[in-house]
Amino acid sequence: MVLVYPNVILTVIPRPESPDALRASAFNRIENIWETFDKERKHYLATDDFPGEDWGYELRGSGLRGANLMGNSQRLLYTYRSVMNFDGFGEKDEPKMPHAQKHFGFLGAQTIDAADRTWLIRKPALEEIFIQPADMERIYLKLSPVGLFDAATQAWAGTDLLGVRDFFYAARQYRQSVINYFYDNKVFESRQWFSGDKGAADWSGLPQFSFQRDDINTNAKRAVPDVCLLLMINVVLFIVIFLIFIKTEV
Question: What is the mean pLDDT of residues 92-104?
């Protein structure tokens, strides 16, 4: 049965213990990072040279604004989301503008730093909760020729787990290049970051994302072990069937 239906293997192999404890521990550490971030954010507002602690600096232009912290323990995701989008400001808003821009420069850097520290916790936790069990299942599935064939074709096409991780690695590199662009051009401190009354922001220099799949030679090298195992299993099965046939004839 397992030779034809490899998923049957997954129903009989032992499953890892529930990762709830690991997930809860990782999320607790992540939550602490963002609680510290929120305290630093509020401390900045309380100690800067503008009266009050309004993160929007009492700007009353035509538009909208809002901010909140959100957590998702199942996905180990924690985010700070702030939105300010104004079409224009009045004369009373202009003296507040330098204070707001300085604050947004601070806030952008603090948000990125908290996100980077979060990733140092989230990445190994996701590896242990999802990637390691998936790797074990892939090994068990190779007990079946059908599973081996599936693994070999995925590796050859570049759609296996390694290929997917290559994409995410490229996405992480792109994220860093975008952040560097923001810092180099002081985007967070720019008025165009939150208002369109002084013209639209120029995003022409923003880095473009590109992902180049590994060439066929790299994918072939990844597929070689599974192909070799598949050939060996076929040879062994052929010999076994041939011997059974001979004995049956006798």
Answer: 90
Between CA 123 and CA 137 the distance in angstroms is 20
Contacts 24+ apart (CB under 8 A), 164-171: 166/213, 166/214, 167/211, 170/209, 170/210, 170/211, 171/209, 171/211
Question: Of 74, 71, 72, which Cα lies nearest the Cα of 130?
Answer: 74
> Hey, is 27 helix, strand or coil?
helix
Pairwise CA distance, residues 160 & 135, whole Å: 11
pLDDT of amino acid 1: 47
Helix (H, G, I), strand (E, B) or coil at 104: helix
In angstroms, how far apart are the furthest CA atoms of the chain? Answer: 104
Q: Which residue's structure tokens are 């985010």?
A: 79
Q: At residue 77, what are phi and psi to the nearest 5 degrees?
A: -115, 130
Tokens of 211: 């992902």
CA distance 51 to 95: 13
Q: Count CB neighbours of 26 within 10 A.
A: 22
Q: Which amino acid is at 143?
A: L
Work out the number of other CB atoms within 10 angstroms of the CB of residue 102.
17
pLDDT at 246: 81
Residue 229 has pLDDT above 90, yes or no: no
Paired with 72 in beta bridges are: 77
Q: What is the pTM of this model?
A: 0.79
CB 6 within 8 A of CB 146: yes
